[in-house]
Amino acid sequence: MSRYLVTAFRTPQFDPLVIDEHRAFLDNLREQGKLELAGPFTDQSGGAYLIKAENLEEAEALAFSDPVHTSKSSIVSVYEWNAK
């Protein structure tokens, strides 16, 4: 398993109502053992989370199913990360 950093930056269409769905999404990843860390940026521009996946395709599939992405509330990007 590799680690992937997911960033989510808010768009002008950001809908605060999506936050509860986003948190439930992260809780589900945590229950599956795929989420290591998550949190918002202090400047309120978005947030990031660290997931474990077999490959980039799996990581992107997970991240792009995040409600903040599917609702177009945030721009989500995924990076393989060799954190130590």
Automatic annotation (TrEMBL):
Family of this protein: Belongs to the YciI family.
Annotated ranges, domain YCII-related: 19-82
InterPro entries in alphabetical order: Dimeric_a/b-barrel (IPR011008), YCII (IPR005545)
Name used for this protein in its record: Uncharacterized protein YciI
SUPFAM superfamilies reported in the protein's UniProt record: Dimeric alpha+beta barrel
